[in-house]
Design a protein that fits this description.
globular, 253 residues, alpha+beta, 9-stranded mixed sheet, 14 strands, binds 2-oxoadipic acid, binds magnesium ion, 25% helix, 5-stranded mixed sheet
């Protein structure tokens, strides 16, 4: 099975909301996995979807432990994955969606230099709490690192709360995932690489290393601070981050 065939199976699984078996050893290595991911999103672009930003994955220990993997990964977000705050998510468009609370960064100006913690703020227009909806295209939501990278890091949806000034504190703030009024997961934002701003720096580095330009208006998702939780019909799911407000999605059939 070649990379193009793997990419079209992954795209079909996402379009039809039907899980497929993992590719395992058919994906040679991490480089092949990222090549496949690119082919997967190119199929989306060919249908008119637009690149809107990057997401990082496994930036917290909790996520690595939950999914049984060890390394930071990155994927691409498209406009079709974006949901309005307070919007409705139709569960029939997904296979087995999970929600996780995140922090989002909005890019202020096209990044054309190496970003560090020292100059990061210059490139951040605003920050917000976000909900990410992940939906592995693999059966039982199980995968190797290569499998999940090829599957565009399970990316399926995201919603962002009200944007806040870039200067607002994002370090060591309480991040919560609330389902139907009950806090189901919570942690400090420092669960994300010790400081969520480190995720912004890492995203800028990965974009640069992989020929993706992060332009003004692009979004970065820093990675979940807590494990992800399965969603079911009629759920109201909210992410909050101390000082940043909240973002909510309603799950319908
Ligand atoms: C992969 C995506 C991981 C995160 O925030 O850590 C991710 C997965 O867990 O299926 O988005
Ligand atoms: Mg995530």
């Amino acid at each position: 099975m070649n990379n193009t065939e793997i990419a079209s199976q992954l795209d079909k699984a996402a379009k039809e909301s039907v899980a497929i078996t993992q590719f395992g050893k058919n994906i040679a290595d991490l480089a092949a996995a990222y090549d496949i991911q690119k082919l997967v999103v190119e199929q989306r672009y060919a249908r008119g979807e637009r690149f809107v930003g990057l997401k990082l994955g496994f930036t917290s220990k909790a996520k690595m432990v939950q999914m049984g993997v060890q390394d930071l990964i990155w994927g691409r977000l498209t406009d079709k994955m974006h949901y309005e705050n307070e919007g409705v998510l139709h569960i029939s468009n997904f296979i087995h969606p999970r929600a996780e609370p995140e922090i989002a960064f909005l890019i202020k100006e096209t990044i054309e230099e190496v970003v560090t913690l020292d100059n990061a703020l210059q490139y951040i227009d605003s920050v917000a709490v976000a909900l990410e909806i992940i939906d592995s295209r693999y059966q039982n939501f199980k995968f190797s690192l290569e499998d999940v990278i090829a599957d565009n890091c399970s990316s399926a949806g995201f919603a962002v709360g009200e944007w806040q000034p870039a200067t607002i504190n994002v370090r060591d703030i309480l991040v919560q995932l609330i389902i139907n009024g009950e806090v189901v997961e919570q942690d400090s934002s420092n669960a994300i690489l010790g400081n969520p701003l480190e995720a912004f720096v890492a995203a800028a580095r990965l974009a640069r290393a992989n020929g993706e330009t992060l332009q003004k208006g692009a979004i970065i998702l820093a990675g979940a601070a807590t494990p992800a939780v399965f969603l079911k019909e009629n759920d109201k799911v909210t992410a909050t981050a101390e000082g940043l407000g909240s973002v909510t999605l309603y799950v319908s059939q």
